[in-house]
């Protein structure tokens, strides 16, 4: 799995935004939609900021972009403070011109009885869009991507999943205490993620150095769901110097 090391998080963000913008412009020129898979969390913030800048200052046109977010906490309504709907709106969608009808984020308030059908519909929308051109990923300290926790099935599709205690602990401050963190989420499956034509996994900071070492130098193992990326034909890992600090 190729790993590219950047001096700083902002260098990395500029580089990734440049790749995203390239795909968007290429598709715009052909009159086609660019289809992006998007994460939330601290890692992609700089990328969204840079894309918003490119939109505002350089006229990058996102009106043809279709986006699919990776995940959402189960039990949260879209307007709730910690929901990924709200986060995406504040960090990105409020600053660019992606059309409302082209934004897909799993809803956390779907009744349990409808979940399976809802997840199948979400997959159907991805297919209808023509599949994901570029999937941007962060990684959990335990190796999760989306909310596919360790030992998630390699071919899993979009579904309701249970959050690992490690993941709930990492989210504790957002929810004012670990006990408030939802226990479940809706996530794109590993199989769904690996269907993307191109995948960029980003990691920033020293606290990711251990898992980045395992991911790029270790074997493929169900214990580290991101390690399956080694089997993808067009996946790369982009890290800052701190996240690369344990690489040999
Ligand atoms: C969020 C997501 C998660 C995060 C991961 C890293 O949509 O899919 O897999 O990418 O938990 O989170 P941060 O970037 O906050 O360290």
From TrEMBL:
The keyword tRNA-binding does not apply. The keyword Hydrolase applies. One of its GO terms (molecular function) is glucosamine-6-phosphate deaminase activity. GO terms for biological process: carbohydrate metabolic process; N-acetylglucosamine catabolic process. Keywords: Hydrolase. Residues 10-233 form the Glucosamine/galactosamine-6-phosphate isomerase domain. It comes from the Bacteria. This is Glucosamine-6-phosphate deaminase. It comes from Anatilimnocola aggregata. The gene is nagB_1.
């Amino acid at each position: 799995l190729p790993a590219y090391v950047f001096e700083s998080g902002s260098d990395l963000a500029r580089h990734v935004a440049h790749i995203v913008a390239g795909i968007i412009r290429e598709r715009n020129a052909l009159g086609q939609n660019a289809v992006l898979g998007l994460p939330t969390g601290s890692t992609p913030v700089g990328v969204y900021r840079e894309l918003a800048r490119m939109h505002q200052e350089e006229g990058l046109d996102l009106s043809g972009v279709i986006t699919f977010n990776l995940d959402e906490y189960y039990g949260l309504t879209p307007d709730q403070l910690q929901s990924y709907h709200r986060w995406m709106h504040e960090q990105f969608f409020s600053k660019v011109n992606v059309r409302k009808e082209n934004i897909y984020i799993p809803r956390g308030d779907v009744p349990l009885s409808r979940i399976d059908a809802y997840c199948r519909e979400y997959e159907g929308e991805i297919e209808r869009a023509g599949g994901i051109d570029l999937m941007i990923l962060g990684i959990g300290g335990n190796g999760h991507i989306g909310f596919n926790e360790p030992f998630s099935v390699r071919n899993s599709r979009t579904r309701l999943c249970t959050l690992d205690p490690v993941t709930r602990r990492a989210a504790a401050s957002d929810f004012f205490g670990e006990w408030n963190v939802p226990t479940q989420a809706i996530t794109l499956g590993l199989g769904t993620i690996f269907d993307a034509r191109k995948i960029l996994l980003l990691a920033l900071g020293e606290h990711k150095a251990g898992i980045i070492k395992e991911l790029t130098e270790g074997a493929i193992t169900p214990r580290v769901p991101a390690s399956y990326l080694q089997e993808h034909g067009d996946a790369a890992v982009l890290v800052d110097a701190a996240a690369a600090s344990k690489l040999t």
